[in-house]
Specification:
Number of strands: 4
Strand order of the largest sheet: 2-1-3-4
Shape: globular
Structural class: alpha+beta
Low-confidence stretches: 68-83
Mean pLDDT: 78
Order of helices and strands: HEEHEHE
Number of helices: 3
């Protein structure tokens, strides 16, 4: 089901988002499955690292910000949302 492609990654982000407050604020978090792979200063570095590590497998790059409306969304890039599904199908 297409709606569940990133469910595990979004759940992982939710479980760890309080740990990311402070020094990781306004950065990009690379998540694969239940693992936070890394935190990056910009989206391009996070996506490049995801492609390098996971090739054609889906992964999540999430812009970590504490703005309330941003924390309530998990959607695809291009919709003005902080989550990015990065995969080459």
């Amino acid at each position: 089901m297409a709606n569940n492609i990133l469910k595990e990654e979004l759940d992982t982000y939710e479980a760890h988002k309080k740990e990311l407050l402070g020094s990781d604020e306004n950065k990009y978090v690379l998540i694969k499955g239940q693992n936070i792979i890394g935190v990056y200063a910009n989206e391009q570095d996070a996506i490049a690292q995801g492609y390098q590590r996971f090739l054609n497998e889906p992964f999540l790059v999430r812009h970590h910000r504490t703005s309330r409306w941003l924390d309530e969304w998990g959607c695809l890039k291009g919709n003005g949302c902080p989550a990015v599904l990065a995969s080459r199908y």
